[in-house]
Amino acid sequence: MAGSDDHVFTLNGDERWLVRWTTLKGAAYGITYTQKAKHPRIVLHDGMRGRHRLTVLVHELLHAIFPQASEEVIEQAGKDIGKVLWALYDIKPKE
């Protein structure tokens, strides 16, 4: 059963992905379990706020959509897209 911090989205045309905000241990702010996983999902640390929260979400979505891309490409694209979205749309993620 999905919790209140769980969201399901269709990515890559027809793949159902779970996006879950929860407490993560260790250094990672987000983890993407790819299409090869039984249940593709993105797990994000719920302690993030503001622009950092948005940028990490974009970063993990890029991993889900472009699993073949290198970490360097994902890292830069995530920062760039997050910066533009934050500036143009004055996005304030749920805290």
Keywords:
alpha+beta, four-stranded mixed sheet, about 35% helix, 4 strands, globular, 2 helices, single chain, about 100 residues, about 25% strand
Summarize the structure.
The protein has helices spanning 50-65, 71-89, and strands at residues 6-11, 15-22, 30-33, 41-45.
Overall, the morphology is: globular
In percent, how much strand structure appears in the residues?
15-25%
Low-pLDDT segments: none
Largest sheet, order of strands side by side? Answer: 1-2-4-3
Main beta sheet strand tally, sense and closure: 4 strands, mixed
Report mean pLDDT, rounded to a whole number.
Answer: 89
Number of helices: 2
Oligomer: single chain
Distance from N terminus to C terminus (CA atoms, Å) equals: 22 Å
| Element order: H for helix, E for strand | EEEEHH
Give the C-alpha Rg. 13 Å
| E-strand count | 4
**Share of helical residues:** 25-40%
> What is the domain total for the residues?
1
The computed structural class is alpha+beta
